[in-house]
Amino acid sequence: MPILYWFISFASLVIPLITTLTLLILLWDSLKTAAPYIPLPKEVLPKIINALEIKDNSVVYDLGCGDGRVLKACYNSNPKAVCIGIEKGIVPFCLAKLRLKKFQKSVKIIYQDFFKRKFSDATHVFTYLFPKPMNLLWPKFQRELKSGARLVSCDFPIDQKQPIKIVDLGRPGKRANKLYIYEF
């Protein structure tokens, strides 16, 4: 009985501490990254994959890849494509690494600031970022994305470029409501 009492007492102290530390890490990550970690609803993933139009020789980047769900969907849609996630937040990075562990030969998760990454090999880019980082990335995209590259942005357009297509995801008033598709 004393061991059970000790275990319950220990757990009642440790679980709130771990929860608090996790929340503080998520808050810290949100402050130092271009956008907070907000997972996309699973029901929009097929439309994102459709909008990306991934082919066998595609090199797909997911900027701020979060938990890696878009990368997993990209891989599942075309295992011959190269899928690369860039994530600066430590918690989402770890979640993505865990989620995509069995795909580690085909899907890469890189712990890096995407402003410091070169995208000259990208044929496809997916973003779910706020307007400010989208607009800050625009000059970088212009310099580095080659002709024919496809950019799909969820919810937030680039102010300086007209999308070739806007896809309504059928979720009025909710996040993940539109896709803005650009070609270079």
Please state the average pLDDT score: 88
Main sheet summary: 7 strands, mixed
* N to C succession of SSEs: HHEHEHEEHEEE
Q: Any idea what the radius of gyration is?
A: 19 Å
Q: Report the β-strand fraction as a percent range.
A: 15-25%
The share of residues in helices is 25-40%
User: What is the tally of beta strands?
Assistant: 7
Can you tag this structure with a few keywords?
single chain; 184 residues; alpha/beta; seven-stranded mixed sheet; 5 helices; globular
Secondary-structure topology with pairs:
Layout: H1 2-32, H2 45-52, E1 59-63, H3 69-77, E2 82-87, H4 90-99, E3 107-111, E4 124-127, H5 131-144, E5 150-154, E6 165-168, E7 178-183
Parallel strand pairs: 1-2, 1-4, 2-3, 4-5
Antiparallel strand pairs: 5-7, 6-7
Outline the structure in words.
The protein is α/β, with parallel strands linked by helices and 184 residues long. The chain has five helices and seven strands; from the N terminus they run H-H-E-H-E-H-E-E-H-E-E-E. It has a seven-stranded mixed beta sheet. Strand 4, helix 5 and strand 5 form a beta-alpha-beta unit. The model has no long low-confidence stretch (mean pLDDT 88).
Would you summarize the structure shown here?
It is built from five helices and seven strands. It has helices at residues 2-32, 45-52, 69-77, 90-99, 131-144, and strands at 59-63, 82-87, 107-111, 124-127, 150-154, 165-168, 178-183. The radius of gyration is 19 Å and the shape is globular.
